[in-house]
Write a structure and sequence with these properties.
Elements (H helix, E strand, L loop, with lengths): L56 H11 L33 H20 L10 E6 L3 E9 L12 E10 L4 E15 L8 E16 L2 E15 L3 E17 L2 E17 L2 E13 L4 E17 L2 E12 L4 E7 L3 E7 L8 E6 L6 H4 L2
Antiparallel strand pairs: 1-2, 2-3, 3-4, 4-5, 5-6, 6-7, 7-8, 8-9, 9-10, 10-11, 11-12, 12-13, 13-14
Length: 366
């Protein structure tokens, strides 16, 4: 399984899909999972730590797991959680749905930078003169590339700016509309159309970028820096985002959020996929609200063998207001939750949940 490819198919991480939807970032905290000590976030908004209890710990876990795009549990599409594979449409028939936003944007930047570079060979580009090209999407609709280039070599170089506008662009999974601007910091390779390999560092800005599927749409605005090395054997992609705004809408009901201080890295090999993430969040839902910090205790790693998907391991920590929740991903379709409700180092409550039970749609859209 590769997390980026030239076909614009953004892999949705089943245990991870619905919920950057649930979290909004709030500044502070560190990789150890220590709660933020400031009383305001980066925007000056007051913070109130989320209170995690036995009654809401499963909802908090669902929100955190999905917001981090934390695992590929059930990535084969088999098993009890098969509805998770396509995204947030977990309570409906498996139709095109919304991916984990951070993972989608990471893959989108890599794929579009590669495609913009390949398009340069098919058109005459004049340095210093803005030029554009409209191309069909893989299923239907179109996307328009507008170039402002620094070099006439026919390849992307540092300083190049590429704007991409999506118009009813169906990529085979989602329907895309809106725009993104990519500023190239570094770019090399990706010249082989059969097995493209190379590296890039691209800063992207998303403006009213909408991914829709079924009865759900996700609107994304903000910026993200993406660095990727693609070899075809071991691929790596890293993203940093200071602030990204999301609006999720389902059947006319809207939920808004802002994710801040995101650091996410994904490494993909033939037989394993590994991810490390840290982020600050705030949320406001029927069963919990407030701020906290998410950190990786041990990397989230999914495994494959000759017969397909094997399972996932890894552990996350949610640091909240005088409490901590530990989330251990285990096996094919379950997670083990441990709650230290008073931060005394002792686990007061623990439970095991399947992926189907960690369906946050009921919380987001009661």
């Amino acid at each position: 399984m590769k997390f980026c490819n030239s076909n614009l198919k953004y892999y949705t991480f089943p245990l991870a899909t619905a919920l950057c939807i649930a979290l909004s970032g709030c500044g502070g905290g560190d990789d150890s999972g220590t709660p933020a000590t400031s009383t305001t976030n980066g925007s000056g908004d007051p913070l109130t730590g989320v209170v995690i209890t036995e009654s809401n710990m499963a909802d908090v876990a669902a929100a955190v797991i999905m917001s981090t795009a934390a695992s590929d549990i059930g990535a084969s599409g088999a098993g009890s959680n098969s509805n998770f594979v396509l995204g947030v449409e977990t309570t409906a028939a498996p139709v095109a749905a919304i991916p984990a936003p951070a993972s989608m944007l990471m893959n989108l930047v890599v794929d579009q930078a590669k495609r913009a570079s390949s398009n340069l060979d098919a058109q005459a580009v004049v340095v210093g003169v803005e030029s554009s090209q409209t191309v069909p999407c893989h299923v239907s609709g179109s996307q328009t590339y507008t170039y402002d280039l620094q070099d006439p070599s026919g390849a992307l170089v540092a300083g190049d700016v590429v704007n991409v506008s999506f118009s009813e662009c169906h990529d085979g999974i989602h329907l895309l509309n809106g725009s993104m601007q990519m500023t190239v910091n570094a770019f090399s390779g990706f010249t082989d159309p059969i097995s493209p390999a190379g590296s890039m560092d691209v800063s992207a800005v998303f403006t009213n970028l909408i991914a829709s599927g079924g009865q759900t749409s996700l609107t994304m605005d903000g910026g993200m820096n993406v660095a990727a090395t693609i070899s075809g054997t071991v691929d790596s992609i890293m993203a940093q985002a200071s602030s990204i705004n999301y609006v999720l809408e389902r059947n006319g009901v809207r939920r808004s959020m802002t994710l801040k201080n995101l650091n996410q890295k994904m490494d993909d090999a033939t037989d394993r996929f590994e991810m490390v993430v840290s982020e600050d969040f705030s949320a406001s839902f029927p069963t919990f609200s407030g701020s906290g910090n998410v950190a990786t205790v041990s990397p989230i790693v999914s495994y494959w063998d000759a017969n397909g998907y094997v399972g996932t391991t890894g552990k996350l920590k949610v640091a909240a207001d005088s409490s901590a929740l530990y989330i251990t991903v285990q096996g094919v379709d379950s997670v083990y939750l441990e709650l230290d409700s008073d931060n005394d180092g002792m686990i007061e409550t623990s439970m095991t949940k399947t992926l189907v039970e960690l369906d946050l749609l009921a919380d987001l859209f009661p």
